[in-house]
Design a protein that fits this description.
It is built from 8 helices and 8 strands; from the N terminus they run αββαβββαββαβαααα. The protein is of the alpha/beta class and about 200 residues long.
Length: about 200
Amino acid sequence: FPSHDTDSKVKCEQLLQAHKNQLEIVIIRPGFQIFGPNDRLTSKEILSRIEQKKTTAFLGSGFNRLGYVYVDNLVFGLLCAGMEAAAAGQTYNIADHDPDFIQSRDLFPLFAEKLGIPAKPLAIPKLLVMPAAFLVDLLHFTVWRKKMPIFSTYIVQTATHDLHFSSQKARREIGFKTQVELHEGLKRTVEWYKSL
């Protein structure tokens, strides 16, 4: 199942690259997992599931690497790119590097630790869910056409592959560096969640 989100990002980058002689552009690719205060899409959902003691799970072995970026660090990376003249026409990955990545199996426990609630996520084998994902894809293409599925082969593939990309170029060329390390970022995110 193709991802329209991914396709649109690639097409946008291609369009910008094709016009980089007429426009001053910098392409920023943030870490796969953006988190922090006011993140109602991912951070709030994860913390809510943990707090309500709902089942948390990951697909596959959970050893796949996820690039992540705390929102303040992403903003710092955007500012670095916008203020460095040599960044024009370049593409940079902006991801935290303290540590360089987290494994998908550690995502829920890291949030749970800061929330003060134990969490042991359930491992769901990829081979178990892939046939169901194929069926959802088939139904989507034949019946549900207008509605994006919340489960698909694309989602399974994304959840079980390495999604970590180095921000070394951004560190070297535009002075990007992690301002808020992982555990402090998680702490701030949990404090925001508790204030809701």
